[in-house]
């Protein structure tokens, strides 16, 4: 069974369980709301929720995670509901996963494994598959000793997509070598993207990236604005491989508009790491369109999750437009935010697109400096930087150095302002 071999997926019934503990951080904790989201993830993976359980403890049990009594209750619940799968909303250690499998007699997955399984289904391009495979091997490596039950299952199923039996039965050295190879391949991808970014700068087309919580409507927005023709379904992580299209937002301004993979609470750290080649594009965008599902009661918490990932990727300083999507479904329009940098839209019905284009054009013009610089010949390296990161209008060679008229952002202007030629000087 190879990594991307098509498998027939039967609808597996699962009991979903989470642990709320006083010692947990917000990211580690579970709640009825996060269990509802876990149910959506399970459906996306092709499974069916048979029952849910939330355990409250002062701290997780070191051996069983949930505690002996709750595990027995979990066994009964799974038996009563004909469930063959246990999905835990929190992250389990390899030993806890192994103990729970032994005690319940059923396959046990944690939230990270379920998300990885969905990504394995969604990846279509070679790059996407490389990134998912790397994330899966990084997840599997510390858990090899406890995966005997999963590896023995025939016919695939939730949590078994990805690296096949023959690969997983290899020793750790082989898997580490594979991880090193995948990292080298993805580093090549990053270098290609770096070249593409330089070419975009030369073409003087600003990059606008669409970000947001999974299923907020990012692909629908890209389709509505550009006619990209991306399949947009009402399910989590429907877009994994990014798409970029040109878009004219006014008579004088054209942009490159790119969508990204959706974010979610408790997104596995090794998944963010594996997708760095794709996600780091955000750090080079000129504007971020942060799309939120304004009809969701949890939109603020979801937006906070997205902002945390954006900060992880060192993109927190990039101008953002808050795009309040699905405004037509909001039961109380008065609760929709308003003001500068906020636009209410309905991507599905094409409402608010002119306002959004105007907001993008305004954001692109914000923080821009049109200046004339005189670069001494001894500092010629600055000219390379200027041609890579700024828009150049004219170049003249004088006795003291190179005189250039450019337009640049705040960051670059701060680095170059010592060379500025002022009218009064």
Structural notes for this entry:
With 425 residues, this protein is α/β, with parallel strands linked by helices. The strands form three sheets. It has a six-stranded mixed β-sheet, with helices on both faces. Strands 2-1-3-4 form a four-stranded parallel β-sheet, with helices on both faces. Strands 11-13-12 form a three-stranded antiparallel β-sheet. β8, α12 and β9 (320-325) form a beta-alpha-beta unit. It is elongated and about 85 Å long. Residues 1-9 and 148-155 have low confidence and may be disordered. The chain has helices at residues 32-45, 68-80, 94-104, 111-122, 126-140, 148-152, 165-168, 172-203, 218-226, 269-274, 276-279, 299-312, 353-365, 381-389, 410-416; strands spanning 13-21, 48-57, 85-88, 107-110, 207-212, 244-248, 254-259, 287-293, 320-325, 342-344, 369-376, 391-397, 401-408. The protein is built from 15 helices and 13 strands. The longest helix has 32 residues, at 172-203. α1 (32-45) runs parallel beside α4 (111-122) and α4 (111-122) packs antiparallel against α5 (126-140).
Features:
425 residues, alpha/beta, 6-stranded mixed beta sheet, 4-stranded parallel beta sheet, elongated, disordered N terminus
